[in-house]
Amino acid sequence: GPGRRLLLSTPIFYANGPPHLGHLYSALLADALHRQRGLRGAGPGRFSTGTDEHGLKIQQAAAEAGTSPPELCARVSALFRQALTQAAVSFTDFIRTSEPRHQRAVCHFWGALQERGALYKGSYEGWYCTPDECFLPESQLAERTDSQGRTYKVSSETGHEVHWTKEENYMFRLSAFRDPLQKWLRDNPRAVFPNPFYQRVLHWLGDDLPDLSVSRERSRLQWGIPVPGDSTQTIYVWVDALVNYLSVVGYPETHGEWWPAAHHVVGKDILKFHAVYWPALLMAVGLPPPEQILVHSHWTVRGQKMSKSLGNVIDPSACIGQYTVDGFRYFLLRQGVPERDCDYYDEKVVKVLNSELADALGGLLNRSTALSINPSNTYPYFSESCFPKILDYRETKALGRASAEDYEFVVSVASLPLQVASYFEDFQIYKALECIALCVRQTNGFFQRHRPWKLNRNHPAEKLWLDTIIHVTLECLRVFGTLLQPVIPCTADKLLSRLAVEPEERGLSNLTFLPRYNGKPCPFEGRQLGSDTGILFHRLEKS
Ligand code: ME8
C-alpha cells in the first residue's frame, strides 16, 4: 500500500574481481523495481548494494595480485561503485563488509545467536569447496579426472574442486529450523519468486538439513571478522555477508523501521544461502525472514559460461560505451528472463536496439512530431467527432473516422499501464517491455495506415482528423515514455520533455491515457512541445 517502507537489495559482490555483465543484470533488475516503486509513489524506499570483502577467496586473490586484502578490496569496491553509477543504478546505500558499521552489526548478530543457544562448538569434517566457501555433502559432489589421470572431486553444481577438511568450528543449529522454514514457505507462497525457485527450495527442505559450520580456524582464514570472544576463529563469510542486509538499515539500533520489509534480488547460484540459511539465521535471533527473495538465472556468452579462463567475460563499461547506458539497460532487461538462462551476443543487442528503440520508438516520435505535419509544434486537440467513444466498436458501424482496428488499438494501449504494473509485481520486467514494444508497433501501424502526411491542414474536416491522429499518437508516446522510465530513464526523460510532460506529470499512480476519449479534460492539448528535436535513440552500426 502507499506509504509502505521497503528495502530492495542486490547481492553484495565479491571484491575479488571486476564487475561483469551478470552483476550488472542483478543490479538493473533491482534498480528498475526501485525506480518503478518511486514513480508509483509507493512510499519510502531504500536500495542497497555493495561489496563482499572477507573470506579465503579475497585473501587468495589479493595474494595473487601481490597486494593486501584491504588494498584489493578498496580498489575493486570502487570499481563496482563506479560501474553501477555509470549504469544509472540508483542505489541509496552502498555497503562494504569491511566497514566498522557492518562489523559491529555482525558481532551483535553473532552475540544474539549465541545468547539464544543457536550455536555450539563442534568438530567438523567434510568436503570443503574453497571457491564456493562451503562444505558439501557427498550427494552434491561429482568425480573428475584431470589430464594426468588423477581423479578428484568437484561440486556438481559449480564444478569447483573440493578438499577433505577437518576442523573445530562453531556450528549453527540449522537442523532445528527445517520445520519453521517449511511453515514460513507454505504460509508465504510468494516468499521465493518466481515459482520454480520456490519449488526448488521446498524440495531442498524435503531432505535432511544438517547443521551449518559458521566459523573457520583463524590459522586458515585471517581475512574476516573474528568470532567475538574467541580469537582462534573467524566468522564464516556467508554469515558475515548476509548480515549486510541488516547493517544497511542500522542494525542493531534502527533496523526495526525497515525489517522485514526487504526484497532481495539474487542470482540462482546463491538461492540456498538466501532462502534457507538467511531466514533460519534470522529466526534464530528472533527476527522474521525477509518478505521476498527475487531470483534470476544466469547469462551465458555465445552459449558458454562466462569465465576468466575462457576470456569471454563481458565488461559492462565497454558495453555502455558501445550501446549507451539506456541501450544496454534496455537490452538486458528486455532479454533477461529470470526463470531461465539467457545468452548474450553483440549482434542480438544491435538488432533489438535498432528495431525497438531507434526505429519503432524513435521513429514514431520523429514522425508524429515532424513540423511538416504539425507546424505549430503544439500538442494537438482531440476531436470527439472523429473518434467518438464506442464500447461495442465491433458491432457498430464507425461513426467517426476511426475504424474498428483503431478502437482495438486504443483499448490495448489503455490497458498497458495496469499490465506493466502487474508484470513488475511478478518480477517479469521482460514481459512488461515486450508488451510496451508491441504497443509501440501497433501505434506505428495506426499512424501509418491513416497517412496523416496526406491530409490537408487547410481543409477543416481533414484538420480535425489530422490533429486527432497526432493527439492519439502523442498520448501513446506519453504512456510509453512514462512506463519506460524505470528501465531507460534518460531516453524516457528526453521523450517526455519533447512531449512537454512536466516532471510532476510523470508519476505512475495517476497515469491516464487519452483522457479526452473518456470525456475528461486533457491538460496537454494546446501546449507548446519541447524544443529538442534531436534523435531519440541513434541507430547502431552492425558490429
Ligand atoms: O555470490 N548471470 O558474489 P558474486 C547473471 N558475495 N547474474 C550473475 C552471473 C551471471 N552469469 N554471475 C553472477 C556472491 N551474477 C556473494 C553474494 S550476498 C549476501 C553475497 C550475479 O560476486 C548474481 O546475482 O559471486 C549472483 O548471485 C551474483 O552476481 C554473485 O556475485
From TrEMBL:
Subcellular location: Mitochondrion matrix
Keyword Nucleotide-binding: yes
Main EC class the enzyme belongs to: ligase
Keyword annotations: Aminoacyl-tRNA synthetase, ATP-binding, Ligase, Mitochondrion, Nucleotide-binding, Protein biosynthesis, Transit peptide
Chief location of this protein within or outside the cell: mitochondrion
GO MF terms, alphabetically ordered: ATP binding; methionine-tRNA ligase activity
Residues annotated as domain Methionyl/Leucyl tRNA synthetase: 7-368
Cellular compartments per GO CC: mitochondrial matrix
Any one GO BP annotation for this protein: methionyl-tRNA aminoacylation
Reaction(s) this enzyme catalyzes, per UniProt: tRNA(Met) + L-methionine + ATP = L-methionyl-tRNA(Met) + AMP + diphosphate
Enzyme Commission number, as recorded: 6.1.1.10
Highest taxon above the source species: Eukaryota
Family the entry assigns: Belongs to the class-I aminoacyl-tRNA synthetase family.
Name the record gives this protein: Methionine--tRNA ligase, mitochondrial
Lineage start: Eukaryota, Metazoa, Chordata, Craniata, Vertebrata
